Amino acid sequence: MEIPSTSPQCGRRQQRSFPGGSTAQRIALDENELAIRWGLSVKTLRRWRQEQIGPIHCKLGRRVTYLLPEIEAFERRVSRYSTSARAYL
Asked: Rounded to two decimals, what is the model's pTM?
């Protein structure tokens, strides 16, 4: 049974196709994919990492990834019902 792929929106899991036609559920996004998901530049995500204000990231060598549960937790933390409420503490 093949699981349908979803768009990279808040709270959605992504599927990745592998050679041979199989799919696996994504557990992480790289900085380019996260920048696209949030409509930000990669440079902004890099600055956030430096200032420690973005989601928790994993770094292996030069590769930076963000686990989907961490992305979703960050999205919940900064979500607000009012534009007058502060997003960052």
From this structure: 0.65
